[in-house]
Amino acid sequence: MTQPDQNTANKPKSAAAEWWDTIVVIVEALLIAIVIRSFIFQPFSIPTASMQQTLMIGDYFVANKFVWGYGKHSFSLGRYGDFTLLDFELPISGRILGREPNRGDIAVFRPVPQNIEYIKRVVGLPGDRIQMRQGRLYINGEMVEREEIGRTLDTDSEGDSREVIVYRETFPEGTSHTIQEISDNAPLDNTPEYVVPAGHYFMMGDNRDRSADSRVLASVGYVPATNLIAKAEARFFSIKDNIPPWQIWQWPANVRWDRMFESVNQ
In this model, does residue 78 exceed pLDDT 70? Predict the structure, then answer.
C-alpha cells in the first residue's frame, strides 16, 4: 500500500479554495437561517401604538411559527420598507399541524382585505359572541373583569400623546393582561354584537381606543384560521421612537433595556 506524500498532505490550500470554502459556509448559514425563519421562529417589529403597553412602538419580538401549524401565509419572510424579502401563498385552505389558538394569545396575522401583517390579541374564538358596551368587553353575554391599575401618557406613531387609564383585564379562562383606554366613550367602545364564524378568530388591540381591529369589519374583521402566521412569544430588543436598531450610537439614550428578553405575556 502506498503512503500519501507528506508534502502533499501538508500543502496549504490555495486562495481560491479558501474563498470557495468560505462561500460554502456562508451559503449553509443562510440556508439554515431561512429554514428557521420560515418554519420555526420569525422576528417582527412594532411600528404602531395598537398593542401598547404590552408591545410598544420600537419593540422587536420573536414569534413562534409552528405552535399553531402552518397556513397559506406562513412562509412570508417579511417586509423591509417597500421591499418584500419573500411573500407567496401556499395552496392551503385551512391549517396543517399545530394546535388552535387560545383566548389571550397574541397573534401575527393577515386580515382578509390586507397584504401586510397585523398583531393583535385573540379575544374571540369560533362561535363566540363579542361586544363592546360603554368601553367594557362582553364575551358571550358576560362582562369581562377589569381592574384599574394606574394612569399614564400614551404616545402614538404620529407623536400624539394622550392620558390613558391602564387596566388589568381578566378573561373567563383566568388569563390576564394589561389594556389601555382613553375613555369609555370612544368610537369603538359601543358596538353591535359580533358572532365569530366557524374557523375564524376575533382580534383586538390592547390599546383599545387606538386600535383598528376586528371591530372594524371593513378593514380587519374576522380573521380566518388560515391567515394566522405566528404566535408572539418574547421581546428581544426595544428602542424609543422607532429609531433603526443599526444606529448603535443612539442606544445609550434610547434603548429600553428593561423591556429586552422578556415574555410578551409579562
Answer: no
Catalytic site residue 11? no
The x, y and z cell numbers of residue 81, run together, are: 420598507
pLDDT digits (tens, 9 = 90+) for 211-228: 999 999 998 999 999 899
SS3 214: coil
Q: Determine the residue type at 126.
A: P
Indicate which CATH number applies to the domain containing 28: 2.10.109.10
Which domain does 23 fall in, by range? Answer: 17-263
Is 9 within the bounds of a domain? no
In a domain, 115, yes or no: yes
Distance CA 121, CA 205 (A): 6
- The one catalytic residue in 50, 76, 211, 238 is 50
Number of domains within the chain: 1
Q: Is residue 8 part of a domain?
A: no
Dihedral angle over CA of 136, 53, 216, 132, nearest 10: 0
Is 13 an active-site residue?
no
Q: Which residues are CB-contacts of 223 (< 8 A; sequence separation ≥ 6)?
A: 107, 109, 110, 111, 112, 200, 201, 202, 203, 214
- Residue 56 has phi, psi (to 5 degrees) of -90, 155
Q: Which residue has the higher pLDDT, 23 or 221?
A: 221
- Residue 5 counted as domain residue: no
Q: Which of 72, 120, 214, 231 is catalytic?
A: 120
Residue 20 — pLDDT band, cuts 50, 70, 90?
confident
